[in-house]
Specification:
The structure is a homotetramer.
Chain A lengths: L4 E6 L3 H16 L6 E7 L3 H11 L3 E3 L2 H6 L5 E4 L6 H10 L3 E5 L6 H16 L4 E4 L6 H11 L6 E9 L16 H4 L3 H17 L3 E9 L4 E5 L9 E7 L5 E8 L4 E7 L8 E8 L2 E6 L5 E6 L9 E5 L22 H16 L7 H19 L5 E2 L3
Helix pairs in contact in A: 1-9, 4-5, 5-10, 6-8, 8-10
Chain lengths: 389, 389, 389, 389
Amino acid sequence: MSAPLRVAMIGNGFMGAAHSQAWRVAPRFFDLDREPEMAVIVGRDEQKNAHLAEHWGWQEAASDWREVIARDDIDIVDIVTPGHTHAEIAIAALDAGRHVLCEKPLANSVDEAEAMSRAADRAGKAGTFAMVGFTYRRVPAAAFARQLVREGFVGKVRHVRADYLQDWLVDAESPLTWRLDKSKAGSGALGDIGAHAIDLAQFITGENLTRVSGTLETFVTERPIVGERQGLSGTASDERGQVTVDDCALFMASLSGGGLGTFTATRFATGRKNALRVEISGDKGAIAFDLEDMNSLSLYDATAPADRQGFTKVLVTDPSHPYMAAWWPAGHMLGYEHGFTHQVRDFVTAIAAGEQPTPSFADGWQVQRVLDAVERSAGAGSAWTDTTS
Amino acid sequence: MSAPLRVAMIGNGFMGAAHSQAWRVAPRFFDLDREPEMAVIVGRDEQKNAHLAEHWGWQEAASDWREVIARDDIDIVDIVTPGHTHAEIAIAALDAGRHVLCEKPLANSVDEAEAMSRAADRAGKAGTFAMVGFTYRRVPAAAFARQLVREGFVGKVRHVRADYLQDWLVDAESPLTWRLDKSKAGSGALGDIGAHAIDLAQFITGENLTRVSGTLETFVTERPIVGERQGLSGTASDERGQVTVDDCALFMASLSGGGLGTFTATRFATGRKNALRVEISGDKGAIAFDLEDMNSLSLYDATAPADRQGFTKVLVTDPSHPYMAAWWPAGHMLGYEHGFTHQVRDFVTAIAAGEQPTPSFADGWQVQRVLDAVERSAGAGSAWTDTTS
Amino acid sequence: MSAPLRVAMIGNGFMGAAHSQAWRVAPRFFDLDREPEMAVIVGRDEQKNAHLAEHWGWQEAASDWREVIARDDIDIVDIVTPGHTHAEIAIAALDAGRHVLCEKPLANSVDEAEAMSRAADRAGKAGTFAMVGFTYRRVPAAAFARQLVREGFVGKVRHVRADYLQDWLVDAESPLTWRLDKSKAGSGALGDIGAHAIDLAQFITGENLTRVSGTLETFVTERPIVGERQGLSGTASDERGQVTVDDCALFMASLSGGGLGTFTATRFATGRKNALRVEISGDKGAIAFDLEDMNSLSLYDATAPADRQGFTKVLVTDPSHPYMAAWWPAGHMLGYEHGFTHQVRDFVTAIAAGEQPTPSFADGWQVQRVLDAVERSAGAGSAWTDTTS
Amino acid sequence: MSAPLRVAMIGNGFMGAAHSQAWRVAPRFFDLDREPEMAVIVGRDEQKNAHLAEHWGWQEAASDWREVIARDDIDIVDIVTPGHTHAEIAIAALDAGRHVLCEKPLANSVDEAEAMSRAADRAGKAGTFAMVGFTYRRVPAAAFARQLVREGFVGKVRHVRADYLQDWLVDAESPLTWRLDKSKAGSGALGDIGAHAIDLAQFITGENLTRVSGTLETFVTERPIVGERQGLSGTASDERGQVTVDDCALFMASLSGGGLGTFTATRFATGRKNALRVEISGDKGAIAFDLEDMNSLSLYDATAPADRQGFTKVLVTDPSHPYMAAWWPAGHMLGYEHGFTHQVRDFVTAIAAGEQPTPSFADGWQVQRVLDAVERSAGAGSAWTDTTS
């Protein structure tokens, strides 16, 4: 094994826990050509950050990301801060010659995403690479879906139905966290979870959304101001503040191959906790994925004899499935965090090979253009809006 | 029991079989205040019609619907012909003093539907009633869903996700039947199955769709001309003709109570045979219905303790459920045709009581306005379009 | 069409409703070579029986079954009385030259079943046929399962797991109906529902259970005496009586092909209403059936590529599936009663062709021997007991 | 935090990977009172062991377990070797004053298990503790099931249906691994997976199996001798050897509370990969668990209104569920390995508190007596056999 890859992680929220676990675990299950080292965790609250450094297993805690990315002993910068900070950090890190893994959505605006993408292009020419963290691509069932489409299993794609359904805002008294503040989060359900639905739909089909017609809605416009941030939803106080992002986004889309998409991203789907569902309908077959049942994939082979046709629920836990040979025997499940572990595996493997990892910042920029087109369409009475302009 | 209700059924296609079964069976399981008699079946092809009269158990076969509706011994006219004939027959029958049960969609245009609705209003004042055949309201699980919403189970409705997914046109060589001919069918997936999704969503929520933004798509624009009609899809010939209706309709909708709806009606959802699905998300609970699993209803009680929340799959076969006391012990399933049997039960019960049955022609007209608004929106770049204008 | 087949139905309980529906409906959906006529219904309570004659559509009501089976205008005797009366009626009817359809279990003892089977053999030589009513064989998914096994889909059978799970006795205060009285019902869960599980397992695999090791249990030994019979469970009174049948039966079995079976029949499976489940595991594939999801069948093809293997849920509603061409388009469901309709279709078809229908009384006798062997094994400390002795 | 707990793991097969991951991850997600240190991994093949030490993250590799357990710097001995070695290692380790975590089944015979249990009792008096690794108790859904039963949710237990279904031996050419060799594995499906089903059934109900009637079967008696061990199933060679363990075990059981159990453990359940299923039916409710759907638990509340009763599928991912507050937001899944992580958490917590962890060796001995009783019953024609003798 060559020299280790020393990682600095900027940010220490919920995503930081998932990334830490991935950096720790990936080299234990996959034979990586370069071993990642959990070097530095960066957070503004020094006490909290020091605690998390120890708890999550980082060698050092630091508070100034600028200093950290300037250090020569850092190879990778892993950005898990809120979206409005991504552009500045990522561009600086790339310019400093650090490989960058950046959480999704890439940025809070198309302009930022474009700048990041251009910075990544520049860096890439010098062998410094950037990747955006659409981890659900790395759920084995989703990766298998991509493989099947590529092999022609579904044929010509007619429909994509992609929903990301959550329900943590159903309660009108659920507090106002940073995720409901446009200045930090950029957008609401659309950018947070809709971005995943868009990326996954594009990834699995291998097609782009070329135009969209959408609408955004904020069902509950005022919520209790959060006293102290705790977990995903925080805790409430008496004061109320304005919700400045969407609670849900609905949109229709044209696919580059001629099919039609429908998308729902919402935090008001009562009873659905984390239901990212993508169903692809083609003229040869269909594929259905549901993140709430993430270890399986449903396949429909429309070329089978009529009396045998039906959805086959494949447990995607066989060594023949993507990523699975590294894990447990068939029938033993993986969980949420394994997508992050696979992301580390793919990112490190690409870097070690001197190749561009995917999804690139350009891919992230493209998703950002779709998000932007949905917002513009919503602002224009759901008029169909190109994603390329 | 008072005098029987003598029924004349106009039309003898697939729907005729379902209606015949319903007229035959309903009085055997329900105590009806007036017994229906299967008097006359009307069809243009005399030989076929005579055969079906015997096969399905009608006392007489006739070929001229005008003569039949003029007969004093006919109490009910049951219209199961294609949509473009509904208005003329229904209005004439009502004017002749016959109660009318008319298949959905009520008509092929808003104007026709309005004329029918006005004719029904006139007739209703004289105690002659009209009903439109949205039979899925009579699936016990759907009726139970309506009851639960009325009782407040879901609270304030935020989302309605209603899909009607079929796949019988996925094969581009599947033939051109009358259902793909706008002059006969009026519309494609939108009117044929989308109408059911709209009616069911409105019925269960007790709310109307007030405006829509939608799009229509015809994926396969030319198909083999059908030699002879057989079953739902017919058989193919060499010649090709134009598909003049939509293969699929997608639309978003505002609900009268402030919620948002998304609707898909398609004949290209590979692997989905008859998946009419409606999910209602409210601030107290959620309800999910799927016609492919029609004997159950999924309920989510958001007011239950956090660790007990989940979707409860209720087998809607208990005597306490709508319609079920008349049938078998709990756990014994009903099928597609039972919705029609319940429709006869409800229609006859209302007539015997001298009351307006539901859904009325006015309800059918309202659905027609929604269908029309979707078409107009689709023609105007998916601009939001009022359903009331 | 040749002369009609005039039917006399002996008995008018819950099964009478199901059989009446079947006699009425079968000729409307299937082209039968001889048309059944609902001639006479026989019941001891004359008033109730007259009411049911009208309600269910029988031409006549009668109270003495002996008189009825002696009538020359009766072709078929349909026996839907409790099990302790089957032998006497069936043998007399066969001896009188009437075709006999007899509800399951064939009898309350092996001796009775043997006598019936011998009577049927004698009658068969004269062209008079007898069939036992294991209707679940006629659920399309079960018939399709049989077809698949016959075609070699599962290969060598290793396991049969067959359960019939109900829960209507979970409540210890649920009343003492005739089904809990050994003198009438013969046995409890074992004979009532276990018989179905045995027949279905043998039917689908095409193998017999050759020996069994089982146990019977009565969890609640005393129950309120039922005031008046109503529905399946009756209503309670203050007095208590002894439960003289089993609440549940568990047994293991050897299959004639070398596989192993496990069987559970219980009325104490809380939450399971009518869950007759059969799963066949073979060296080439597996098949799983569940009566609570009766319109589908799950198939596992162990010869498929490793990454595509999974259970395929086939909606058994395609015209290519058994019985389905007579009904609705693909995706439209059948219910509980359709098994009875198919039974009439198969029975009448065999009679019209002068052929022995299946399952024969000999098949019913074989099931009875299995039931008897389970009881004997249970009485002998679960010692393995041959079903052939 | 007090002094770390230095761990020596004996064995380096598939279980070693799972345990290594658990030791590494547990302190990162749970606040443990003492931090485990991955000190030594012990394996006979020095080269392989050295490689795994590095790969899995152990500080040292060693080849002689006797030397290792004698070391004063070792606090915990974690035994993941085949069953025939458990007794010797565990007793020596306990006698040497090391806490012991031992994989299941505890031993290959009741005598060994008894000796181990007595050694654990002796050690326990000196504050040295032993635990047996029935990790599935630590799947949150299983722990939640236990909690519900304890709270009275199911009431009086009538039925336990517990199956552990795998299919990796369906192919008669699948090779002869050590798991099929009685001298190493002790027993086949019975001890390997049946032990889990027994433990889980007893754990959830809080009752013991008091007597059993069972049978064992070896469907394929000769298999290709494995060239070199690889993964769970190995690779094949030309020579054939005798399978000396059971392919499947079926048994019935009496529960200490008066209910009845049925158990199946098999490696021939085609299509079922890792289906450990336990369903508890009581007079107040039912609970169903399936390891192939491990993030959910199905609950049936028989005290709910009749029309609302049904199985509620609870996603056991809420912070209110056992272990879940340490992990991700609701709706984010855990996998197979998390049960091991929770096991480390519970083991370390008990040791730090100076308390006996569960399941104790006495619990493991009790399971061993059940396994033994099943074998004896199988050898005695399935005669009912006490588990206490």
